[in-house]
Amino acid sequence: MKYRRLGKTNLDISVVGIGTWQYGGEWGKNFKQYEVDAILEKAKEEGINFLDTAECYGDHLSESLIGDYLSRSKREDWIVATKFGHHFHGNFERTRHWSVNEVIKQLDSSLKALKTDYIDLYQAHSCTDEEFNNDELWTMLDKQLEKGKIRSLGISLRSNEESYQTDHASDVKAGAIQVVYNRLDRKPEEQIFPSSQNQNLGVLARVPLASGYLSGKYKPGATFNSDDVRSKHNSEETAILLKQVEEIQQNEVPEGVPMATWALSWVLKHPAVTAVIPGCKSPEQVELNAKAAQLADDSHPQSVK
């Protein structure tokens, strides 16, 4: 495993992390505690130390599964990121909660679910610019930093289309952003990454396998079951994506390298990117994802020597 400093935070994180939305029960599987334990044990074995979750992944369910594991592990071995701003109301349904009092309650609920005294990275979750432009909110969060409940602040961007929140991240003492970035979606390269580099912000790349399209499992003509979120995608767009993936596999992926491993390492090669956070459903996936670190660039500007 390789490690990088997360922007202007003091957090050194593994270049491959673990995304944990799936533990909230919305992706066709309800995870048991022993299954999450096995995934996190494998992550530890592989040198992964970064976990990304959220309060609305099953109404603190993902956090609770992680927290149960953390309570039986060394807390200091892990860098835990979670998010705020929503409340879970069933499959893919959320309400938005951004007042100071609501966010304080969310923070305390997250600390309780995670069975921890502090959160390493607390991220505003897909907020609108109006929700972002709330001085009272950021003043309150700054006080939580002073109290030690939070070690660092971040912003999980809702869109790749514009860079307003990234441009103003330093103004609210955010040291990292999270963004969708993969070989099929390079939009952040235009505005978001240059702004991040100018401010020394850490960058967490979510959906690095493009919702599984870059896993290497699917060929042109593939169809998805009704309980698969990809079945809701436009069929013409899906056909175009699968054709793109086939061309990438033929022309860019070295022989003998699994496409998923290559796709993660491709993201890690961008000088703005600190880490990738693919979702993991099994210890075997953790092991495969971790191999991307071997292909990561040792001369990356955020590398921890």
From TrEMBL:
E.C. no: 1.1.1.-
GO molecular function terms attached to this record: oxidoreductase activity
Record keyword Oxidoreductase present: yes
Keyword annotations from UniProtKB, A to Z: Oxidoreductase
Enzyme class: oxidoreductase
Pfam families in the record: Aldo_ket_red
Domain NADP-dependent oxidoreductase: start-end pairs: 16-299
InterPro entries given in the database record: AKR (IPR020471), AKR_Detox_Biosynth (IPR050523), NAD(P)_OxRdtase_dom_sf (IPR036812), NADP_OxRdtase_dom (IPR023210)
Designated name of the protein: Aldo/keto reductase
Organism: Mesobacillus jeotgali
